Amino acid sequence: MSSTGSSNFKSYLEKATSQLLLEPDWNLVLKIVDCIRQGHVQPKAALFSIKKKIGNENPHVSMFALQVLEACVKNCGPPFHTEVAEKEFMEFLKKQAKSGADPVKEKILELIQTWSHAFRNEPSYKAVEDTFHLLKMEGFKFPALKEADAMFDAETAPSWKDGETCTRCRVQFTVVQRKHHCRNCGEIFCGRCSAKRSIIPKLGYESEVRVCDSCFDKINKTGASGKKDDDLPAEYLASPLSKQAQVSKMVP
């Protein structure tokens, strides 16, 4: 873990949980996810910092921190899951659910229920399911479970590959010819072969991110085939993601 990477993470987290924000800054959230996935900050240290923000007395800061946490659990894989599923962290969330403002409480209950369902077959994450059942026994009312949101364990963002040439056109990377990763498949590409952007609902990317040409076509094939909205999952149609246009944008 580099000191620069750690410093960047703290800066991104500070900005992503600012009480001055009117809505989540998904670009910053994505950078936080990248810092963890690339090893610039260890999962334990990252969660410690996020935990402090969740415990902030300002409910807006707490809510933004919970959204950061949600994105990290969806995209940072088992190393981060292990830290979140620790009994100590579950106890912290339980305490926040009991003492926090209503929106904070509702978001925590939503996350715990989602994780409990997602990790139900993982014995090492038993603390999550135990916490869910304890809160239920104590009379907490949980929202309706959206199973689509609990499928991230099978749809964890891929590990990033490394290399000296573009996966598609085989051009050699140089100081000028920079390398880029496709957020959907994790392969490495030159700028020309990864110039498109798209949201990736299954991985929790709610703002458009860089993808390779092949993945862009796969992700957006539904729109290209003229599939009607009626054929799409209800959970997706009801989400903010369905309102975002999946259009190609060139990366500067």
From TrEMBL:
<feature type="domain" description="VHS">
    <location>
        <begin position="16"/>
        <end position="143"/>
    </location>
</feature>
<dbReference type="InterPro" id="IPR000306">
    <property type="entry name" value="Znf_FYVE"/>
</dbReference>
<dbReference type="InterPro" id="IPR013083">
    <property type="entry name" value="Znf_RING/FYVE/PHD"/>
</dbReference>
<protein>
    <recommendedName>
        <fullName>Hepatocyte growth factor-regulated tyrosine kinase substrate</fullName>
    </recommendedName>
</protein>
<dbReference type="InterPro" id="IPR002014">
    <property type="entry name" value="VHS_dom"/>
</dbReference>
<dbReference type="GO" id="GO:0035091">
    <property type="term" value="F:phosphatidylinositol binding"/>
</dbReference>
<keyword id="KW-0863">Zinc-finger</keyword>
<keyword id="KW-0862">Zinc</keyword>
<feature type="domain" description="FYVE-type">
    <location>
        <begin position="160"/>
        <end position="220"/>
    </location>
</feature>
<dbReference type="InterPro" id="IPR008942">
    <property type="entry name" value="ENTH_VHS"/>
</dbReference>
<dbReference type="GO" id="GO:0032456">
    <property type="term" value="P:endocytic recycling"/>
</dbReference>
<dbReference type="GO" id="GO:0043130">
    <property type="term" value="F:ubiquitin binding"/>
</dbReference>
<dbReference type="GO" id="GO:0005769">
    <property type="term" value="C:early endosome"/>
</dbReference>
<dbReference type="InterPro" id="IPR017073">
    <property type="entry name" value="HGS/VPS27"/>
</dbReference>
<dbReference type="InterPro" id="IPR017455">
    <property type="entry name" value="Znf_FYVE-rel"/>
</dbReference>
<dbReference type="Pfam" id="PF00790">
    <property type="entry name" value="VHS"/>
</dbReference>
<dbReference type="Pfam" id="PF01363">
    <property type="entry name" value="FYVE"/>
</dbReference>
<dbReference type="InterPro" id="IPR011011">
    <property type="entry name" value="Znf_FYVE_PHD"/>
</dbReference>
<dbReference type="GO" id="GO:0008270">
    <property type="term" value="F:zinc ion binding"/>
</dbReference>
<dbReference type="GO" id="GO:0031623">
    <property type="term" value="P:receptor internalization"/>
</dbReference>
<keyword id="KW-0479">Metal-binding</keyword>
